[in-house]
Amino acid sequence: MDNLLGNSIKFHVSVGRSCQTFYDQVRSHKLYRYLIFYIRTDNVIDIEKIGMRRCNYEQFLDDLHKCGAGDCRFGIFDIEYACDCVGGIHSPGYHDRLLLVHWCPEGADDTKKMLYAAGLKALHQILGERQVIIKATDLAEPTLARAIEECRALDCVPLSTQVPLVVQPHSAEAT
């Protein structure tokens, strides 16, 4: 009965070869500001959009949301911000960190949501970096202020205790 209801469907999602190459060009070589990923019909994550280094966070969000209210996407953004934290892994000053946004709007169907949840695990395993991960279901969630706040929170944590930060969508019940 679970299979008929879709409750135990398992998706195998793999990451396309070019994803790692372009990810390295964002992270290490600073050639691009961001990448937008989608899952092809053959369940392979591929690059949909590459943002040039001069692009800003608003352009990133616009490209991330272009898929519409019924589809999901992933985005990697090389975020730069000021941090005045003392005692963490960084000294005060300007820093950069990779932000991984999992865009899965409320309007997406359940199958698409499950597919992208499986894709998030696959993408995170391949990237292997300690990114800040924001899971967003509406346009108000992945704001620049929130992204910077989450990055700064990691900067003040001793390196030995640092783990990937997964930020869940804000729930209406919590307010």
Automatic annotation (TrEMBL):
InterPro entries: ADF-H, ADF-H/Gelsolin-like_dom_sf, ADF/Cofilin. It holds the Pfam family Cofilin_ADF. The keyword Metal-binding does not apply. One of its GO terms (biological process) is actin filament depolymerization. This is Cofilin/actin-depolymerizing factor homolog isoform X1. PANTHER family: COFILIN-RELATED (PTHR11913). GO terms for cellular component: actin cytoskeleton. It comes from Drosophila lebanonensis. Keywords: Actin-binding. GO terms for molecular function: actin binding.
